[in-house]
Amino acid sequence: MSDFKTIINAYKDKPGGIIEAYHALQREYNYIPEDAIRVAAETFRVSPAQAYGVATFYSYLKVGPRGRYIIRICESAPCHVAGAAEVVSALESQLGIKMGETTADSKFTLEFAECVGQCQGTPVITINSTPYVGVSAQTIPEILQGCR
Ligand code: FES
Fold first, then answer.
1. In the chain, which stretches have pLDDT less than 70?
2. Angstrom distance (rounded) from CA 83 to CA 89
3. Among the atoms of ligand 1, which is closest to the Cα of residue 122?
4. CA of 120 to the centre of ligand 1 (A)
5. What fold characterizes domain 69-145?
6. CA-to-CA distance for 117 and 121, rounded, in angstroms?
7. How many angstroms separate the CA atoms of 51 and 148, rounded?
8. What is the spatial distance between Cα 7 and Cα 45, in angstroms, rounded to a whole number?
9. Most CB atoms closer than 10 Å: which of 39, 84, 106, 133?
10. Three-state DSSP class for 143?
C-alpha cells in the first residue's frame, strides 16, 4: 500500500488539493485514516483541526477505521417495504456489530445507503459497491461466507 505522504503529495500544488487527496486516500483505504489527516495538515499548511474539519464536512468522505468489506443496506422506501429491516437484523447478529460499526478484525463495516438504482430486486445490499439483489435473512450467511 502506498504511504499517506506519497498519495497526499500528488495533490499538494493543486487548488482544492486537500479534498482530492482525501478522495485518493479513500480510494486506497476505503476511508481516510486519522494519521493521514495529520499528514494532510502539514502538507497543506493548515491546522490539524481545519484538516479534520474538511474530512468530516463531506458526507461521502469517511474518517476511519473502516472494514475491508463495506456492506451498505439500502433503506429507501421500496427496499424498506421489501424487508430491509430483517436484512439489517441478520447482518447485525451474524457480524456481532450494529449499523455504523466495524468488526474488531477490521473486516466488515455496516452502513445505510440511499437507493442504489437496483429497485427491481429489492431488498438490496452492496458490498464494496457490488450490488446483491433480492437478499433475505436466509441468504445473508452465504453472502458473508463469500467474503471470508
Ligand atoms: S430502493 Fe433500494 S435499490 Fe432502489
1. 1-2
2. 10
3. 2
4. 8
5. Glutaredoxin (3.40.30)
6. 10
7. 35
8. 16
9. 84
10. helix
Of 73, 119, 125, 135, which is best to mutate to test ligand 1, by the most ligand atoms within 8 angstroms of its C-beta? 119
**How many whole angstroms from 11 Cα to the centroid of ligand 1?**
35
- Say how far apart CA 95 and CA 108 lie, in whole Å: 8
- CATH 3.40.30.10 domain locations along the chain: 69-145
Say which amino acid occupies 16: G
Q: Measured between alpha carbons, how far is 83 from 107 in angstroms, rounded to an integer?
A: 25
Asked if 73 and 125 touch (Cβ cutoff 8 Å), the reply is: yes
Instruction: Decide: helix, strand or coil at residue 2.
Output: coil
C-alpha grid cell for residue 32?
481516510
Atom of ligand 1 nearest to the CA of 75: 2
* Ligand 1 binding pocket includes 131 (Cβ within 6 Å): no
Q: Is the CB–ligand 1 distance for residue 116 below 6 Å?
A: yes
pTM: 0.74
pLDDT tens-digit series, residues 118-148: 999 999 999 998 999 999 999 999 999 999 7
The radius of gyration computed from the CA coordinates of the chain, to the nearest angstrom, equals: 17
